[in-house]
Amino acid sequence: MTAAAAPGRLVRMARGKDRPGCLILPGAGGGLTPYLQLASLLGGSRAVDFVRPLGLMPDEEPETSVAQMAASVLDIVGTAAAATTMATTAAAPRLVVGWSLGGVVAWELCVRLAEAGHRPDLVVIDSSPLPRVPGPGEDEEIADRMVADLGPKADPRTVGRVLRTLAAQAAALADYRAESPYPGRVLLLVCSPYDEDGREDAVRRWRELAPHLDVVHLDAGHYEVLEPAHLPQLATAIHTFQNQHENQEER
After folding, report:
1. Do residues 77 and 90 touch, judged by C-beta distance below 8 A?
2. Among 188, 243, 181, CA closest to 213
3. Sign of CA dihedral 47, 150, 169, 165
4. CA distance 53 to 10
5. Considering the entire predicted model, what is its pTM?
6. DSSP secondary-structure letter at 34?
7. What is the pLDDT of residue 13?
8. N or C: which end of the chain has fewer CB within 10 A?
């Protein structure tokens, strides 16, 4: 089974015929639920699609590098181009949004799309272009949180797939370093506290790679940024970024 052929990877989250397309790429674990309200906020003016990672369904193997993840999403985008119902969304997204792991996958996807002549606006939410170095016990805490989110009666096989996928994703981030510049417009949303977790080094490197970079600081921690209390700030930053550039293009 090819990555693009894996069932249910491309999920329509907000419909919108003839609206510009938005593609959301999730952080590690890849569950859909944390992104539903974000998709609703963005879906007022866009058709929104979501791509889940490989490894969460039976008979799927998790991907082991960011490059592999980006290539399979690109494969999905190309496959969607053949379907008329997806022609204005996943096939040619005007906006790509990624949080954490999803941010670097989105970066690599957009680099590849730019090589084909398409430059979507890119929103990177608290992602680093540098190899990830987790703090003591951090990966264990993330795994515990994800297992807890599955509920007390989760199928042990489901738990096993989530943990295996998470381990593969963590290893991929540890090996990742962004090397290719992206010539399109980029919004980097930086969580707080700014002076921890290597964020200053990350922003510095993103500036080297993105000639058209806007940076906005959010009043939310990395793991809280998608919570309902912080989503209005997140959505406002994204809308402002896109509206600002669309207004410039109209002049």
Report:
1. yes
2. 188
3. negative
4. 10
5. 0.91
6. G
7. 93
8. C
Q: Is the CB of residue 109 less than 8 Å from the CB of residue 124?
A: no
Half-sphere exposure of 229 (CA within 13 A, CB side): 5
Say what the pLDDT of residue 1 is: 46
Cα–Cα distance, 91 to 96 (Å, whole number):
12
Please give the helix or strand (H or E) that residue 121 lies within, else none.
strand 121-125
**Number of residues written out for the chain:** 251
| pLDDT per position as a tens digit, 180-193 | 999 999 999 999 99
Neighbours of 1 (CB within 10 A): 10
Q: Is the Cα dihedral 65, 71, 75, 78 positive or negative?
A: positive
Strand partners, 186: 122, 213
Distances (CA, A) of 170 to 138, 173, 216: 11, 5, 26
Q: What angle do CA 6, 91, 234 make, to 5 degrees?
A: 95
Among 53, 64, 155, which Cα is nearest to 102's? 53
148-183 pLDDT per residue, tens:
988 889 999 999 999 999 999 999 999 999 999 999
- Name residues whose C-beta falls within 8 Å of residue 26's C-beta, 6 or more positions apart in sequence: 32, 34, 35, 50, 51, 52, 53, 98, 99, 101, 102
**Mean pLDDT score of the chain, rounded to an integer?**
89
Tokens of 130: 């540098």
